[in-house]
Amino acid sequence: MNQTNSPSSLLRRPRRLAVSLLWVVSLYMLGTLSILIFSAGVYVRAVGDHGAWLIMASWSLLTLYAVVGVAAGVAGGVLSAAHRSLDMIESALHAGLSRLPALTQAERESFSVDEARVHYASLVDRMLNQTVGYVSLPRWLDGTIRSWVQDAIVTDFIALCRQRGMTRIPPQEFRNWLLAQGATLALSPVHDQISLWQYALFGLIALLAGGALLLSYVAG
């Protein structure tokens, strides 16, 4: 067994993941706070002699930007850690797929398409318990990844079989498909969704910072 993908190695990864998460969240928080507080500070300085109400509003804006900076930093760090977690889980899945046991006599019978969907969904669930189960993740992330993996692998495989006109699906066909592309294919949509959230978060930070700088330019 590959030592880098053994159960004991996988059990040590959550600790490294937790340390990495703390560093990443701290860096993201420092970055977002620096950007937002700088832009809000420019606005506070620009309206420093424009009346008490406008000064109070500018300081309220600075406080709001500080809160948003902390929240955005935490969110950005968690999203970045989620990407790393998916990479780790993909590695674990590939390791598990490469160690799939030989088919037993009972598993050599082919299934109809509907039977195959149920049977292979159960097989993928057991496979996830043997691979992803070694990695301690937050319940929401574990549930999301399991749902994506199960839906993507089984649904895409059944759709491929239908396109090929297959009415009976032998287990070896599913095993070969899993070994060829299952883990990477299943986790790609999750990576894409996390990237979309990251782009949206960066866009929000840029919009807030740009808005404060624009207001300071108008006030000046």
**Number of H- or I-type helical stretches:** 5
Q: How would you sum up the major sheet?
A: 2 strands, antiparallel
Low-confidence stretches: 1-12
Order of helices and strands: HHEHHEH
Q: Roughly what is the average pLDDT, rounded to an integer?
A: 77
Strand order of the largest sheet: 1-2
Rg, rounded, reads: 25 Å
What does it look like?
This protein is mainly α and 220 residues long. 82% of the residues lie in helices and 2% in strands. The protein has 5 helices and 2 strands, in the order ααβααβα. The chain has helices spanning 7-46, 52-98, 113-131, 139-163, 171-219, and strands at 111-112, 168-169. Strands 1-2 form a two-stranded antiparallel ribbon. Helix 1 (7-46) runs parallel beside helix 5 (171-219) and helix 4 crosses helix 5. The protein is elongated and about 85 Å long.
Key descriptive features of the protein:
220 residues; mainly alpha; two-stranded antiparallel sheet; 5 helices; 82% helix; 2% strand
